[in-house]
Design goal:
Helices cover 48% and strands 0% of the residues. The chain has 147 residues and is mainly alpha-helical. The longest helix has 24 residues, at 53-76. The model has no long low-confidence stretch (mean pLDDT 76).
Length: 147
């Protein structure tokens, strides 16, 4: 018989990535530099600066809740249920449209239980998505999903 603590994660959320030092990543792109027109301006201090403690706590809370839900579902329903749910979410996350058409990933949001929450992206749009639609052929050629 397994120990009771072996099946479930701890009740308190642990700090995720609390280190102040972060590694600096080299710019990526076709020529080893950032694609500023498609990705926007990049600042080195944004990649080095640690997350705010509240942001780290929120990230840890969401991850901890997910671990708890999967552990409870695995012990109550079936041990293979968490694996089935993770596989389903991985399949839902892979659905893609053409690069110029934004995919809201509604099925993944429903699977994660986030369809009833109002986030920043729902109110002010995702800042990584441009407001203007580019040329379909150029964007498809530049997309890594269609190579």
């Amino acid at each position: 018989m397994e120990a009771p603590g072996a099946l479930f994660p701890p009740l308190r959320a642990m700090d995720v990535g609390g280190s102040a030092a972060a590694s600096v990543k080299a710019p990526t792109g076709p020529h080893g530099v950032n694609d500023t027109l498609r990705e926007g301006l990049k600042f080195a201090k944004d990649s080095v600066r640690p997350k705010h403690p509240v942001e780290r706590a929120q990230d840890a809370y969401i991850q901890h809740q997910e671990e708890m839900n999967m552990a409870i579902a695995g012990s109550v329903v079936n041990r293979s249920l968490p694996t089935m749910v993770r596989n389903e979410r991985a399949a839902l996350a892979q659905m893609r449209r053409l690069p110029v058409l934004h995919s809201s990933m509604v099925a993944l949001e429903i699977s994660l239980g986030r369809e009833s929450t109002l986030d920043f992206e729902d109110y002010l749009n995702d800042p990584s998505v441009p407001e203007q639609i580019g040329d379909v052929h150029t964007m498809t050629d530049a997309s890594p999903f269609f190579k």
